[in-house]
Amino acid sequence: MTDAPLLTARGLAKYYGHRLGCRDVDLTLHEGEVLAIVGESGSGKSTLLGLLSTELAPSAGSVTYRMRDGATRDLASLSEAERRLLLRTDWGFVRQHAEQGLRMAVSAGGNVGERLMAVGWRHYENIRSEATDWLSRVEIAAERIDDDPRTFSGGMRQRLQIARNLVTRPRLVFMDEPTSGLDVSVQARLLDLIRQLVEEFGLAVVIVTHDLAVARLLSHRIMVMKSGRVIEQGLTDQVLDDPREPYTQLLVSSVLAA
Amino acid sequence: MNAPVTASSMPAITYNFAYLDEQTKRMIRRAILKAIAIPGYQVPFASREMPMPYGWGTGGVQVTAAILGADDVLKVIDQGSDDTTNAVAIRTFFETTAGVATTTRTQDATIIQTRHRIPEAELKAGQTIVFQVPIPEPLRYLEPRETETRRLHALADYGLMQVKLYEDIARHGHIATTYAYPVKVEGRYVMDPSPIPKFDNPKMNDSPALQLFGAGREKRIYAIPPHTQVVSLDFEDHPFKVQAFKEPCALCGATGVYLDEVILDDKGGRMFVCSDTDHCSTRQAEGHTGTMSAPYQEAAHD
Questions:
Q1: How far lies A113's CA from each of A128, A181, A197, in Å?
Q2: Does residue B122 form part of some domain?
Q3: Is B173 touching A (CB cutoff 8 A)?
Q4: What is the domain range of residue A46?
């Protein structure tokens, strides 16, 4: 590991016509670091995630990433082929709706194996044993390998999405509200699993959530967004226990105590 | 006011040679040339309405019309047969609109338009085979967006195609795709060879004949120039295999050819015969017989 940051954003902004998506965002992320982006609906957090993951083109600013070969590249300068390779090898993207992150008509094994085949694996049994291995890591029974995700529960779908993304051992994973829409006990298990995998593989994660409890459990650092800007950031426990901005104070005090 | 047009004053219908107007043929030829220059790449073209429904070979007919010359000899097959509806209709169409000679003999033809088969007789240099293609995009059922499939082709991003074969093995224990089996052309583009049985895939590799593919509804033309490498996709531990038949053709005794199953009665009676009717009748004329050849059958009726 080096001290150079993995992902750096400078002066990032996105406008949808005249409407503001987000603006003036600076951030750095190091290997193994988990960053939570919190804020209410419409605060620009999903836009920011889209910009960081190159799904959206920024109106201003830049994002740089330290590739596996150690060279730091401006993501806007990557060719489409390089960008796709990055997306399916060194990065992962876990989406809120599993249907967007999975191929629903393809078996669980095929979903996990897709990235392997995309990077050139051509031995069926090897692909299958790697897929089996990953299914067990995310606590999906091996006998479900040939079932398609339509037959899976919400929690299983999210876990399958995680397996599908982690099979190429990425260093950076983006997560967009991975636990919303799941019931509380399933959420807890999923968070536990994510925390364990982050630990085991030293993953850097950018996680977007409106759930402060998720941020507190998973992240080292937190960014609070409002109206397209970052209004407060810092260590997670510091920001959540001692919020400085009135809006953050409001957010923290809005959480229902169980 | 113009005088009313009566039937007797109308001119007899005349068609331009091979039905299509010359500008359209030029447009299609340009698409064909581009397709030949980039083997396996799907070239969009302005497909015309043809006097037959989509699915009946409008793409193949347009390609044939564009390349047909007055001294060409045309053969048309449908499922390997020269005398099924589609084959007869298209052959008659070109007899009527172009007046070209037609044949059923593979080796006499200069242009062979086909649906579902490549003839058993080896094609030679100078021959052109025109395939009718329903769905030219091999990635279609995996990725419905055309913008995305084009990008996948542009980047040679074919992992998805392998996922399809993976699914086959996972569900059936072997690659169960038996027709329209995807191939990689000259190490670059993955191509749908039209719904020919995978039995015919090896014939496309290094063929001395020019192979053209036309999809009318989908408005795409693609090509395999002579002596081009065509490889069927597979897995290292599940290599590509063609269908094998247990028995020879019941009429001509041929082995190593593609056979059609013909149901004879409702008691499970069946026979297997060459799907390539020209190949079968040629062999029968040469004196080859099978278990159900005509003399045998006559003897059985006595």
A1: 7, 26, 19
A2: yes
A3: no
A4: 1-82+170-179+205-258
Residues A84, A149: Cα–Cα separation, whole Å: 24
Which of B140, B141, B150, B167 is most worth mutating to test chain A (most A CB atoms within 10 A of its CB)? B167
- Helices B159-172, A124-137: axis angle to 10 degrees equals 80
Write out the two tokens for A167. 């099979």
Catalytic center residues of B: 40, 249, 252, 274, 280
What does DSSP say about strands B270-274 and B101-102: parallel, antiparallel, or unpaired?
unpaired
- State residue B301's pLDDT score: 46
pLDDT reading at B212 higher than 90: yes
Residues whose CB is less than 8 angstroms from the CB of residue B220 and which lie 6 or more positions away in sequence, other chains included = B42, B43, B44, B45, B59, B133, B136, B137, B213, B214
Q: How far is CA B47 from CA B24, B62, B220, B265, in A?
A: 9, 8, 8, 43
- In angstroms, the CA A7 to CA B260 distance is 61
Question: For the segment B90-142, what is each residue's pLDDT rounded down to a tens digit?
Answer: 999 999 999 999 999 999 999 999 999 999 999 999 999 999 999 999 998 88
Number of domains in chain B: 2
Q: How would residue A125 be classed by pLDDT, with cut points 50, 70 and 90?
A: very high
3-class SS at A143?
A: helix
